[in-house]
Amino acid sequence: MRDTRTVEILYDDQCPVCRTYCTKVELAAPGDKLKLVDARKPGALMADVTALGMDIDEGMVVKVDGKIYYGNDAMHELVNISKAGWLERRLFGRRGLSSVIYNLCKSIRNILLRMLGIRKIDNLKDPRYRS
Length: 131
Description:
- The protein is of the alpha+beta class.
- Helix content is 43%, strand content 15%.
- It has five helices and four strands.
- Helix 3 packs across helix 5.
- The chain is globular.
- The model has no long low-confidence stretch (mean pLDDT 93).
């Protein structure tokens, strides 16, 4: 029997699409815990991601068993460990298609944030996100 684990999702809570998606994620393995981490608030995971040079404005982050997945890889991993629906599995379950769809979603997100007047997080430039 495997130990339960905590899966962390680092996402933009001010983005309505990101917030809606992330709050609906359910992990498939019984006992696993999901922790949602707002990327707009400085913290340990945000400091780690920033130290690794990952621009949170360009991709979400999923941390599983100490391993950090970024962007398309994060979405792909999340679909594989969650109770993702049929459409999510078709779009993000295979790496090639997942990459194309993820980049399209990221572009739409960036346009939406501009339209709503929501500023970028800019974690690579903002000293609050460094440890």
